[in-house]
Design brief:
By secondary structure, this protein is mainly α. It has a domain of about 60 residues. The protein has 3 helices and 2 strands; from the N terminus they run ββααα. The protein has a two-stranded antiparallel ribbon with strand order 1-2. Helix 1 packs antiparallel against helix 2. The protein is flat. The protein starts with 16 loop residues before the first strand and ends in a 17-residue tail after the last helix. The mean pLDDT is about 85.
Length: about 110
């Protein structure tokens, strides 16, 4: 039997990613989260421009970075949707006694 060897490039799994690292959906969510924070800080803080820029970066960069990374390889919107469905459908378990308290034979 003759086997053919194929060379796979190192970046063959980078399709659909921005700069080979971030998923496109995570990047869009990151922009949607950090742009309003940046605008609100620059437009409404009553300080000098340097202080406003520093405050905006302190708030917008961690929020955008968190959105870029995501949670468990999911984007934030997908994770929040899964969490919301779990939160609405969870049930409370109650303790009805142990099997050894004599109710079994009744």
């Amino acid at each position: 039997m003759n086997y053919e060897n194929y060379h796979l490039p190192a970046n063959f799994t980078d399709a659909g990613k921005l700069m080979g690292m971030f998923q496109i959906r995570n990047t869009i969510e990151s922009l949607l989260i950090s742009a309003p924070i940046l605008y609100l800080c620059l437009a409404f803080l009553p300080f000098e421009i340097t202080t406003r820029i520093i405050a905006a970066m302190i708030l917008a960069v961690p929020a955008g970075g968190f959105a870029l990374i995501g949670i468990n390889d999911d984007c934030l919107s997908r994770f929040l949707g899964i969490w919301w469905r779990w939160r609405r459908s969870r049930r409370i378990l109650t303790f009805r006694g142990s099997p050894s308290d004599g109710r079994r034979g009744q």
